[in-house]
Amino acid sequence: MKYGICPISIVPMRQETSDTSEMVSQMMYGEVFKVLEYRKKWSRIRLSNDHYEGWIDNKQYLEIQENDYKNLSDKNNIAFAKDPISTVTHSNQTLSSILIGSQISSATFLGDSFSSTDIANLKVQHEKSNLVSEALLLLNTPYLWGGRSNMGIDCSGFTQLIYKLNGYYLSRDASEQAKQGEVLSFIEESDPGDLAFFDNTEGLITHVGIIMKDNYIIHAHGKVRIDRLDQTGIFNLNTSSHSHKLRMIKKIV
Fold it and tell me: Which residues on neighbouring strands pair with residue 14, listed in sequence order?
């Protein structure tokens, strides 16, 4: 088994072994993974944090040892960048920009130095009360299918990122996230930070957002935006119509 780490800002994970293939997700700076299948130009990987799989370009990662993979995967020692954009300095004194949610606890292993607060102060705090305030940092981020960063993000990438920053690990896709946590019967039972899930006409869960106080929801739809939430679903304040049909509400923490 081979193992690897992402040494650059962000790497697309693709459905197939082609630069033109659908991007199913992204790998961010400092994340580590297992190599499930190795080819001359591409590797099929499984991320440590959420076990998501996809193909990445072999030029965009570094191979590491199994012990390093295990150490860098230890959730008790992981720290994430909290600023929308930060800078790391490489050993050759060149700079790279990294994005919110990047795994900066891997910087020392990569021989990089981090520009912001001491890394020890950025370890996750498991604070549900911070979920909504940190979600607001991504307001107006453009929607991007497969995106996981503040340069472009999809609905489940958004909820996963915000929960990850606070030490709670969600699955990658909305349909899988919907299997986590405790079902609530009514919106009134929810707290800010709980998740609302929405289905399509076939009954498949295709959308998720973070509940705010006073029956508002923040979610990625065209961009990260705030709309009203009621028992029917999401009421889009721009179109004055419902954009998503409510399926369930989940308390994750």
Answer: 23, 55
Instruction: Give the mean pLDDT of the chain.
Output: 94
Q: Is 244 a catalytic residue?
A: no
3-state per-residue secondary structure call for 110-154: HCCEECCCCHHHHECCCCHHHHHHHHHHHCCCEECCCCEECCEEC
Q: What single-letter amino acid sits at 238?
A: N
Q: What is the predicted pLDDT for the residue at 114? A: 83
Percent of the chain with pLDDT over 70: 96
Q: Point out the catalytic residue in the list 51, 90, 207, 221.
A: 207
**115 and 132 inside one domain:** no
What is the model's pTM?
A: 0.94
Count of domains observed in the chain: 2
Active site residue 207: yes
Q: Is 219 a catalytic residue?
A: yes
pLDDT-based confidence at residue 119 (cuts at 50, 70, 90): low
Query: Which is catalytic among the residues 51, 126, 219, 221?
Result: 219
Is the pLDDT confidence value at 116 over 70? no
- Check 51, 90, 126, 155 and give the catalytic one: 155
Domain range holding 64?
2-122
pLDDT number for residue 125? 67
Identify which of 125, 130, 106 has the alpha carbon closest to the alpha carbon of residue 8. Answer: 106
Rounded Cα gap, residues 29 and 86, in angstroms: 11
Residues 20 and 105 in one domain: yes
